[in-house]
């Protein structure tokens, strides 16, 4: 642009043939007014002022964080500036300037980093039990919560009313209503909360020698199976409970109905997958008829037939689950919100702490971004991080969807962390 400015000022062309040719070709697109270079828009005749290098950063920052600005994105800043100004690499310089803004770094809403649907695979009942505590409200019997336990494979559900969600209560109810009736599960999956991660339940888990996997306590989707069951229970209680104070009296009946209903995923009812036969409803017409003598067999023959029938049922259920999960993953991953961002070891990121927003009166206005952090290890679904200015600290493990990329060149390596240890 300097050669073009010199041409308009001094009416001279550059000595270099290529530069001379370039100035001659561009000059009809520009005009020079009061010592200032303007570009003419050939479509509407608007003039855009050429901005020298020393004024560019100030102009961008004024549009981004000035008194009348709103910390807009680089794309929007560029669109604003391009209406009146021009210079080479304007878009890139807007991106760089906004990337250095600390306020934007700590408040930027993340694009969806949620990985595509990762289906949990189980192949038999009691391989994985999912737990949750559902708050309903106090009943006449002084129960306030429901301990919800769902078998991942069969979808068999145990839902017991409880007065509180202390570790002692949850551990006792789980042992009495799951373990002592159906046996110990191989794994227990729970949302990460005090009621599941205290020493009492950990001791029970150690006694059972069951592996414990936990989800993020503030992210119900991570415990999706039991979360959907929670919604089903609430819906059915609304429909069937005459008085909101007596919900715990109706709970066993709706759980029975749930367990007797074939699942769209497995093709069988939870009852069938757990016990190898269809459930008898109290209203079935043939209950009083007893067993037809023609089908009476001895115990050994029955056991053999039962095993064969159960294995056939389980095989068919496994196949149905596989087909259903593939279909669900395909449908889930087609959603526009599902995008996979690639993070790498050594990269700097911000972390969202949703629990911090809950401490504020106006939660929507609160900052819940902290960092920057440096990625020191990464898996498909989580990353190990340390503060950029405290690399010797113990790393924290954060799910991928809670990470926000810091655009290059990034903010200074001065980390801002929660005052107290918060839930990730």
How does this model look, in words?
The two termini are 51 Å apart. It is elongated and about 110 Å long. It contains 14 helices and 14 strands. The chain has 3 domains: 2-107, Endonuclease III, domain 1 (Orthogonal Bundle), CATH 1.10.340.70; 108-114 and 338-424, SH3 type barrels; 128-331, Nucleotidyltransferase, domain 5 (2-Layer Sandwich), CATH 3.30.420.10. The protein is an alpha+beta fold and 424 residues long. The longest helix has 36 residues, at 299-334. Helices cover 39% and strands 17% of the residues. InterPro entries: Integrase_cat-core, Integrase_H2C2, Retrovirus_Pol_polyprotein, RNaseH-like_sf, RNaseH_sf.
Poorly predicted ranges: 214-222, 286-295, 360-365
Please identify the structural class as seen in this structure: alpha+beta
Q: Rg to the nearest angstrom?
A: 32 Å
CATH superfamily grouping of the largest domain: Ribonuclease H-like superfamily/Ribonuclease H
* Percent of residues in β-strands: 15-25%
How far is it from the N-terminal to the C-terminal residue, by CA? 51 Å
CATH C-level category of the largest domain: Alpha Beta
> What are the secondary-structure elements, in order, as H or E?
HHEEEHHEHHEEEHEHHEHHHHEHEEEE
What's the gist of this structure?
With 424 residues, the chain is an alpha+beta fold. The chain is 39% helix and 17% strand. It has three domains: 2-107, Endonuclease III, domain 1; 108-114 and 338-424, SH3 type barrels (Roll), CATH 2.30.30; 128-331, Ribonuclease H-like superfamily/Ribonuclease H (Nucleotidyltransferase, domain 5, 2-Layer Sandwich), CATH 3.30.420.10.
């Amino acid at each position: 642009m300097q050669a073009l400015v010199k041409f308009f000022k001094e009416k001279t062309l550059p000595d270099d043939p290529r530069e001379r040719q370039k100035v001659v070709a561009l000059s009809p697109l520009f005009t020079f007014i009061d010592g200032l270079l303007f570009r003419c828009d050939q479509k509407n005749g608007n003039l855009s002022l050429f901005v020298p290098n020393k004024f560019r950063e100030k102009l961008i920052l004024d549009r981004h964080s000035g008194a009348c600005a709103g910390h807009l994105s680089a794309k929007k800043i560029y669109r604003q500036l391009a209406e009146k100004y021009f210079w080479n690499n304007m878009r890139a310089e807007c991106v760089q300037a906004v990337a250095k803004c600390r306020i934007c770094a700590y408040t930027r809403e993340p694009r969806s980093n949620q990985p595509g649907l990762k289906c949990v695979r189980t192949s038999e009942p009691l391989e994985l039990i999912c737990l949750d505590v559902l708050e309903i409200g106090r009943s006449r019997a002084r129960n306030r919560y429901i301990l919800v336990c769902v078998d991942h494979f069969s979808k068999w559900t145990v839902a017991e009313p409880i007065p509180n969600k202390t570790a002692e209560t949850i551990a006792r109810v789980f042992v009495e209503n799951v373990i002592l009736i159906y046996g110990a599960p191989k794994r227990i999956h729970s949302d990460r909360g005090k009621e599941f991660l205290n020493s009492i339940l950990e001791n029970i888990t150690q006694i059972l020698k069951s592996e414990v996997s936990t989800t993020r306590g503030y992210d119900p989707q991570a415990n999706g199976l039991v979360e959907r069951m929670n919604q089903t229970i609430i819906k059915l209680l609304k429909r069937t409970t005459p008085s909101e104070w007596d919900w715990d009296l109706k709970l066993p009946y709706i759980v029975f109905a749930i367990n007797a209903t074939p699942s769209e995923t497995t093709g069988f009812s939870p009852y069938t997958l757990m016990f190898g036969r269809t459930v008898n409803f109290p209203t079935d017409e043939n209950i009083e008829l007893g067993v037809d003598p023609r089908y009476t067999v001895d115990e050994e023959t029955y056991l053999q037939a039962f095993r064969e029938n159960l294995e056939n049922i389980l095989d068919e259920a496994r196949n149905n689950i596989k087909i259903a999960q593939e279909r669900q993953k395909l449908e889930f991953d087609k959603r526009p919100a599902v995008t996979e961002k690639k993070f790498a070891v050594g990269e700097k990121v911000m972390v969202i702490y949703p629990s911090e927003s809950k401490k504020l009166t106006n939660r929507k206005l609160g900052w819940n971004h902290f960092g920057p952090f440096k990625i020191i290890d990464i898996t498909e679904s989580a990353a190990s991080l340390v503060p950029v200015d405290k690399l010797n600290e113990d790393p924290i493990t954060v799910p991928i969807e809670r990470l926000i990329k810091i655009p290059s060149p990034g903010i200074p390596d001065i980390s801002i962390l929660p005052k107290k240890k918060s839930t990730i």
